Amino acid sequence: MNLTIRQLRAFTLGAQFSSFSEAANRMGMTQPGYSLLIRQLEAEVGMSLFRRTTRRVELTEAGREILQSAQRTLQQLDETRRRAEDFRDARQGTLSLAFVPSVGCSLLPPTLSRFAEVHPGIKLVFHEAQAVAFAERVRSGQAEIGLGLLLRPDEHLAFEPLMRDCLVALLHARHPLAGRPTVTWKALARFNSILVTNQSSVRVHADRAAAAAGIDIEPTYVMDSLTTAVGLVRAGLGYAVLPSLALRSMDLGGAVARVVEQPRAWRDIGLLTRSQFTLSPAALAFAAIAREAAAVFPGFNG
To answer: What is residue 163's three-state secondary structure?
Structure first.
């Protein structure tokens, strides 16, 4: 049996209005064309579904028997269509998002605020991780899209830079180097250092820049959290190398930030996705809003 959606709609409208002419009008077709649809349906099921009189039509016993089933089928199809349209237009769905901690306290909040305003029906699932694990979340498909950075090229991943972030040294206000407008890696090497774990992009870029300056930084303290590192600096326990991107969201009372030079260390912050995978409408919408947020995000002015 090969029933069509158009035949079922014609059948249910005929039952609703008890009039072929009204049903045809509701379907935007001629009455002869509508009658042909009904005849085709009746031929397909092998039974008469309507009794025709000069004034009206009414359902046969067979028609009454299958009417509710036809209505349920059309309702399910309408629901499927609505859900597909909601997904297509990013009105409903789930988006799995990865991000690195420094982005989570800086670029992510304004991006999420705008996304929630425009797409309130999208449920978000978050994966916060340091740079190495962050990339793996996207590569494995645990997260559809990431907001962070890529430490090294990966053929399985596509990276779109959105903004640049320089590393700075956070110093206690009474630190011997605090009065300088900028500091160098060689100057910092004489003092106690507070560095984050080597799973972090901050540590990777700091180690690379220090090596380019011909020094090897031996950390006095190694922390997982940027916030904890700031706390140690404020306690006068050493300097910390931090991403400038995160400074605006932190309480730096009693501390000052100085750009580290010779050489400067930069991180490219952007969108990470799997290569050759088509993004969902929700992910495409998030990417568009992240681009807008990055374009107006305030940079570090020293």
So the answer is: strand
